[in-house]
Design brief:
Two copies of one chain form a homodimer. The first copy, chain A, is built from eleven helices and 14 strands. Chain A is α/β, with parallel strands linked by helices and 345 residues long. In chain A, helix 3 (159-167) crosses helix 11, helix 4 crosses helix 10 (314-324) and helix 5 (195-203) runs antiparallel to helix 11. Residues 339-345 of chain A have low confidence and may be disordered. Chains A and B meet through helix 7, helix 9 and strand 14 of A and helix 7, helix 9 and strand 14 of B. Strand 14 (303-306) of chain A pairs antiparallel with strand 14 of chain B.
């Protein structure tokens, strides 16, 4: 019998979750609750690609061989050094009759679960990839379980823009949920001009929003968009400086959202938050002990959430923000443009 | 002017929080909102003591010299290798007129903020300590800031038992708050026979409580106490095994509390939790990325909290549980007895 979380695809070691497995079985035959996707492109996680590029001195041939080697030996694109994966784009080839994902053959989809737990087989040897970037055109197939997550790429949104949004769609959905459960008057977003930061601001519409950015370039991106009532430049690792910057625009926040991907922001985020308030950490650079001991050391009565990338309905919610909020759309498009230009060449 | 979080005591580097400082100023003269404590005993953090003992091959003289060296050079007992501290016991010598802590000269107190941010000066060279244990008798003084936390040791509870409870008093208080904010029918506690685990169970009285323990010895400690409706033996790192064990006693939990101090429990805790439920991580061994990516990979709609060791009123709440719940008192006393016996010799 198939397991909704894919336990039946684990080859070794027996009994672990697919993400913890050394090797998965990527056989194309699907169980009644599975979906098979014809893969068109892998988006490797940035940390994973960087590690591979460093290890092979930027030699595209060797990087490509390394990625093929991982996929063939593990049955998934799970970088054994960084522990990270990425996502993929493809077209639904077959959906089992009992799959709860609501997908149909022909749907163009992006997977929202990590490649580290997605059974994957590549059939073209990655011949169309030069090994020199995170975007990997490829032919092959991947398997989704009953509890996997995939989003149908919308026809009305530029696919690159949609992918950028889907990659971080948990952030705005969780901010919206927090605001429903614990209404907040003031929301501070650290790293406010980035992808997850700007979407978090859009989700906090109706509150007094403070966008914290690291420099004047980022300030220029955000100012005038209407996404934040206040834009302040501050180092998110400098607890004392950030608290002072917030005081200058009205005081600490009831909800602080950390979207800055550098280590050492925990104490600043805690000190930026009013007693009884909430901090949501979305940065993978967050240190659990630094947050836990920091709050205790500051006698800070704050609720601290680990940013779960999954919230039911997150993809639709984020795409809806993109459609309804022209400011966030323009900001994200401007961020993508250099990359879109790269793609065109 | 003095800062409620002690910024005025930071000597270097300028502008950081006391916990991040290389050196604090432990001068005995207090500001109007500070409190000076005559220190009687330091309780070194277990990880810190172990590192020092290893580094000095268990040589008590050298361990003592190392601790004195840290305190003299840093103005606080902040182990530079482990980054951890501990707590202290002493008697209030002087409380500034503006201190909000409610302490009076003569009160016997335990500090509930880490030694890593507490200005400390030792005047007896630690002459009464043999260097061979985490408990360090000493004479000297320490400073509490306006936002520090200290608990008056109660007269009606064995001091060792009170200290053991105060050390983990954030756990039961946060469990109680979670249950107020999001009522839960079923609560699972991983590591249920330990200090924080048994207090978390006591705080969840009125729900169906599942105590998860690692072996039959721990099961024997917990069974028959009435602290849990079900006691199950399972490895908290084995996601599949734990889910099966919970299914056997009624299914996943609405609130899962992680009190197991070993790495690798994140996925098991997430999978043990029902959709819409909450996981509270109290273990310092918790990995932030493992929790965040694990929940996303399992498409798990769970709220994940970083266990903040500070909740207003936590010390009184935990001591109240100890007084009112004879089961938790007996269990904790039994856990302490070997150590209390050591002390007597």
């Amino acid at each position: 019998m198939s397991s909704p979380i894919g336990l039946h695809r684990v080859v070794e070691p027996a009994g672990v979750l697919p993400q913890a497995a050394l090797r998965l079985d990527p056989s194309p035959a699907i169980a009644a609750d599975e979906v098979r996707i014809r893969v068109q492109r892998l988006n490797l996680d940035a940390a994973s690609y960087r590690q591979l590029a460093d290890a092979h001195h930027g030699d595209g041939e060797r990087i490509r061989a390394a990625v093929m080697g991982i996929i063939e030996s593990r049955g998934k694109m799970h970088n054994p050094v960084t522990g990270s994966g990425g996502m993929l784009i493809g077209v639904v080839e077959e959906a089992g009759p009992d799959s709860p994902l609501g997908l149909r053959a022909g749907d163009r989809v992006a997977t929202l679960v990590s490649l580290t737990l997605t059974p994957l087989a590549v059939t073209d040897g990655l011949k169309d990839w030069d090994g020199l970037g995170e975007q990997v055109p490829c032919d092959g197939h991947a398997i989704l379980f009953a509890r996997s997550i995939a989003a149908v790429l919308p026809g009305d949104v530029d696919p690159q823009l949609a992918l950028a949004v889907l990659d971080v769609c948990g952030a705005p959905a969780l901010v919206a949920r927090c605001l429903r459960e614990r209404p907040a008057a003031r929301v501070a977003v650290l790293g406010a001009a980035g992808k997850s930061g700007s979407l978090a601001l859009a989700a906090a519409k109706g509150t007094v929003r403070v966008g914290v950015v690291r420099d004047d370039t980022e300030r220029a991106r955000l100012a005038g968009t209407g996404l934040a009532e206040h834009v302040v430049v501050a180092d998110a690792r400098d607890a004392v400086g950030l608290a002072a910057a917030l005081d200058a625009v009205g005081g600490p926040a009831d909800l602080t959202v950390v979207c800055v991907d550098v280590p050492g922001c925990e104490h600043a985020a805690i000190l930026a938050t009013a007693p009884g308030g909430t901090v949501v950490f979305f940065s993978m650079a967050t240190s659990f002990p630094a947050a836990a001991l920091g709050a205790e050391g500051l006698a800070a009565d704050v609720t601290m959430l680990i940013g779960n990338g999954y919230v039911p309905g997150h993809a639709e919610y984020a795409l809806g923000l993109l459609r309804s909020d022209s400011a966030v759309r323009r900001l994200l498009q401007a961020r993508l443009e250099p990359r879109l230009a790269d793609w065109a060449t």
